[in-house]
Write a structure and sequence with these properties.
There is one protein chain. The chain is α/β, with parallel strands linked by helices. It has three domains: about 1-150, Isochorismatase-like (Rossmann fold); about 155-280, no CATH class; about 280-380, no CATH class. It is built from 16 helices and nine strands. The chain has helices at about 10-15, 20-25, 30-40, 60-65, 80-85, 100-110, 125-135, 155-165, 205, 215-220, 245-255, 285-300, 305-325, 335-345, 355-365, 365-380, and strands at about 5-10, 45-50, 90-95, 115-120, 145-150, 170-180, 200, 225-230, 260-270. α11 runs parallel beside α12 (about 285-300), α14 (about 335-345) runs antiparallel to α15 and α15 crosses α16 (about 365-380). The chain is elongated and about 70 Å long.
Amino acid sequence: MKKLLIVVDYQKDFVNGSLGFKEAEYLDEYLASLIDQYHQNKDDVIFTFDTHQNNYLETQEGKNLPIEHCIKNSDGWKLYGKVNTAKKEHDICIEKTTFGSLELGNYLKDKNYQNVTLVGVVSNICVLSNAVIVKSALPETPIFIDVKGVSSNDLTMQVKAISILENHDVDIVTWLWQFQNEEGKLTIDPHKIPTFFCGKKSMLEFAKGLYYGSYANGLVVGVCNKLYKRDYIKNIPFEGRIYEDDDWMSQVLAKTGKIFCEKKFWYIYVQNNTSLTHQKFQEQNLVMLDIVKRRMCLFKQDSFICRESMKLFLNLYIEFWFRAKESKIQPYHDSQTYIQFMRTLMRGNGLCLKDFIRYSIFYVSPNLYQILIFKMRKRKL
């Protein structure tokens, strides 16, 4: 069985170009020899290319990182140095416009390899993102990141993340995140961020952050703000669909294990207004209701997560019903689960009278619910 080497974004602009750094140049000779070795053994090599168009500065990423780089067919887009010479015509080249490449995952999901090794730049961003995607596409295949073949423009961050994973006997390392708006400004006040998640926690304890507010939710469900032990996420495929981060992280956190949250802002979230979650409401959005039901099953032993998941299901059920109607698509129908959750919450004193009345009115007549809500809002105005 063949082995696979994936060379991530070893392009001129990331080595000695507009976003280059000295440490990246030092990788050239080692990477070239590694590529030659794979070719000699008749193993496979894939090159990923960060790829942008001439209108880069007008894109969402360009507004937040206004440094032109890797413009397709430009000199900076090409492979650097000896690595470029080592590349063969039969090697696979995959162009990507984001950190991780879904095309790479889709290409690999039907392949069989003895193992997969990733090298390239930048270790804590694109290399790590694609390692997660590769593992999701090939859950039974050992995935390695060759530490001699990767580098970062922030070596402290690279070393720190790996050392935490090794020295704290944990399965996942994560860190705090910030939100960057279209003007490139960080909008979250660091002093208002809950830090009780920091340090070593059980997966279950950390998972409760799903319902501790929007910041904690983002910290928990984020996939790319974490470093994982390979064996821990084995057999948990990443399906590449809308809300896949919520579903995938629920499965990961439902396993018995430990997570360490570093009190450092190492992850910047830049909102992409063209992503799936920011498109017009479509039928595929309804899958979130199934994800919430699966989450409840995964954490059925924890009363807090079960209770909050049932509340979330009821609220989303109502919201999605009206959004589906507005978009002229078939609403989600599971009245049996709806009434079951409502009754379970009432029996366990997990539902206030006001919400019980609201949920009951919707169950009897969504149209009546809409009229009453409209009148209540009008009265408040």
